[in-house]
Amino acid sequence: MTPMTHIETRENNETLTPASPSSVCRLRSGRRWVIAAAVAFMMIGVLAAGIRSRVEAATKLRVVTAQMAVPSVSVVKPTPTAPDQEVVLPGNIQPFISSPIYARTDGYLKKWYFDIGAHVKAGDLLAVIETPEVDQQLAQARSTLATAQANLAIAQITRDRYQSLLKTHAVAQQDADNAASTYTANKAIVDADTANVRHYAALVSFEKVYAPFDGVITARNTDIGDLINSGSNTAPRTDLFDMSQPRTLRVYINVPEEYSQEVKPGETAADITLAEFPGRRFPGKLVRTSEAINGITRTLLAEVDVDNPDGTLLSGSYAEVHLKIAAENSTFMLPVSSLIFRGEKLQVGVVRDGTVTVTDVTPGHDLGEQIEIVGGLKANDQVIENPPDSLVSGQNVRIVSATLPGDSK
Fold first, then answer.
1. Helix 132-167 to helix 173-205 angle, to the nearest 10 degrees?
2. How far is CA 18 from CA 15, 24, 29, 322, 328, in A?
3. Looking at CB atoms within 10 Å, which of 100, 204, 222, 409 has the fewest?
4. H helices then E strands: how many in the chain?
5. How buried is 66 (Cβ within 10 angstroms: 0-12 exposed, 13-18 middle, 19+ buried)?
6. Which secondary structure element, helix H or strand E, spans residue 400, and what is its range?
């Protein structure tokens, strides 16, 4: 008899009946199927997760590739120019009148009355020159004139006497004519000696040096006892004083040729600034130009006059002249970084509805970091900043930012 397995368990004081061998086999077979199904489901889950991640990665790659295929650009909007634009040019301040004071006669400086910085009026006595030689020459000329006048008086008496005697035929006609000729010759000598006296008198009057206009003494180049040369000989002339009139100042500037047509005397406003007066502007007026372009510098010489009644500004100073020049109509400002240089044309890339249009533009004034565009743009155009060399019309782009000229990046 085959032995049988007895399985006995006690639970709640109850006794279980022993299981048969067939039931035990079925139980073990079901457990194996459950384990196999669980393993299969786990493998299917792992495969599904891997496939899904790969699909998502491929999708992301396609999206990124599509995005990279469309280049990203930054655009700038053209800024309309102001009705008046300001051009700053360097200039040198000069007095309206500046003159060296020379001697007109030879001698020695006897005395001077004004030193540097003195404000003088026209006609003020500046210095006295001692000229003993000229004084003696004047005395000699006067003596010669007196002799000639005496001879002329005798000649006149003789002529008149001969004219009276000629009426009674007491003298010959020849004698009367000789007397008249002698009178005429002596009169000419008197006239010449009179002119010579006036000449030396004028030289003596030049012993006193007077101020020719209201102004300031800017230099005194002589002192008492110095030898003074009038410049009438080979010796160099003596510059006694330098004078200037600072009430009105001249500022000469060189205007670039591109602005020459907009600079008009009497119409163009001008202000000047100096480093020693920060934040202060002095009004001026453009009064004249040379009306010719310098062939070497390609500039137009212009003069700006500035009133200086209280002498605040000093002649010889360096100044910056601010010219207000009328701008052309429908002009815009762009940063130079937005320009495309291809061949002889100047172009920009304009974005319209996500598509690039390479447009020809006409440049105006070059202001360094910015340039004036006088043709080819509209106010609402979006211009690509720092365009790549490969940029062509019809290319699709994506705008990532828009800035205005002059905005900080």
1. 160
2. 9, 11, 19, 118, 114
3. 409
4. 3, 24
5. exposed
6. strand 398-403
